[in-house]
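I have been asked to look over a protein record a colleague put together. Alongside the sequence sits a line of tokens, each denoting a local backbone shape. Please read both lines and tell me whether the tokens look consistent with the sequence. I do not need a full report, just your reasoning and any doubts. I have pasted the whole thing underneath without changing anything.
>
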Amino acid sequence: MDNLNLISTFAEFKELKNIDKSTMIGVLEDVFRHLLIKTYETDENFDVIINPEKGDLEIWRNRTIVEDGEVENPNQQISLTDARKIDPTYEVGEEVADEIKLADFGRRSVLSLRQNLASRIMELEKANLYEKYKDKVGEIITGEVYQVWKKEVLILDDEDNELVMPKAEQIPSDFFRKGDTIKAIVARVEMRNNSPLIVLSRTAPEFLERLFEMEVPEIYDGLITIKKIVRIPGERAKVAVESYDDRIDPVGACVGMKGSRIYSIVKELRNENIDVVNYTSNSQLMIQRALNPAKVSSIQLNEETKTAAVYLKPSEVSLAIGKGGLNIRLASMLTGYDLDVYREVEEEDVALDDFSDEIDQWIIDQLKSIGCDTAKSVLELSVEELAKRTDLEVETVDEVMRILKSEFE
């Protein structure tokens, strides 16, 4: 076997990443038995002994001893004379085991065997790699950047398996060099041209979810549940969390003391802003929380169309929409409602002096003397209180109230 250079094949086989020893032995035996059937038409009377640790292989043929001249099948029978050349004590009816050397198969058969073995090894490697990573979909792995191309990055795992991360699965501000260590989740595993294609992602919501599980023990332990994550990778994300223990503040636990827990996540995501909100099944309240930091005045829901009209003070509108519309887009994604923002129309107040053509100046002065210098400040008080606090008659106050009310009708 040494002169046929098959030892190197076994040595390579022993180093394979994704094939266990028992499978390896099974494949080797299967390949050699295939050769035996091809050469001798049967493998039933052969023993194939494999020691993959040393790269040893032995093939023994078992034949029954028959009288000289009665050999009908030389592969399964041996004459007494030939048997006694091996051991003079042999008798008719006994079995003789003789070793078959690989050289006996012929050079062409051995070359075919090597090709068959290499092909089977490659198929097993691919199948096992596919199964291994199929079970890892959604998990974070750490790898090393091996090659950076325009449309994708080639990454090697700790067993030197090749993984790819397309441009679309990279955070826009990601920048990698060969040798960089990278974290990502296994997004999907596909078979392409009969080879497994393992695709990694850093933009998937699941990547952010796994990062939270790594940084927040309460999430990992199941005390806090992440209900939903929405992201615009590299820009902003919103995470709805819920606690099953009233003593645990889910938002506080996720952010950590002085933001200590969330800081490493933000850093990993290239400074992606992360809003953590307390989940609730109350749609109105959830929309309010999702639009944070804007303060919502009122909400009108339409459950049929899954739309919501959100009213805010003019100063809050830009906060609700956010830079480039990110905040409202993410809030819509998080709540499942199509959100429309409206400015809350406030009636402007009018100074009392503007009514001097309808109200005598001395009456205006009386009202101003008690701190009422605008129409609304007067309307907020009752007729009786105004008459009591000023020297005005009730009838006069009634007339003033009528004039001021008409301004806002």
